[in-house]
Predict the 3D structure of the following.
Amino acid sequence: MQIFVGNIILQYYRRHCIIKFWRVVNIREPAKSFEDLLVWQKAHSFVLTVYRLTGTFPKHEIFGLTSQFRRAAVSIPANIAEGFRRRSASDKARFYNIAQASAEECRYYLILINDLGYADVREANSLIQEVSKLLEAYSKSILNSES
């Protein structure tokens, strides 16, 4: 007889109790909304980081670097969201590609911000690298599912 308690299996065998541990595997259900996508969650986190970062910029940058960087950052999760509801794999991949291009634009802005000495960009760099890797993986997965 076996009894499951959390991630422990109690197995009774001839008056002895054998305790076994089993690994709980997190099997993700298909995403119901773009908000369920890990890549969107990371991209949204990047946008929030960009807003915090640009809030510290000099006032003369408000219509320049601040505006451009925020626009490019917001474009990443926005295109992921728009691509989520597209029916064809090629349509989805096209929106993810636009998001990838915006991520590359943001990478440049981070280089510029660092060179100008406006802010510490380590956290933002780490996030955008993660977003880029996830976007690449999602794009490949979608394109491979088409063939």
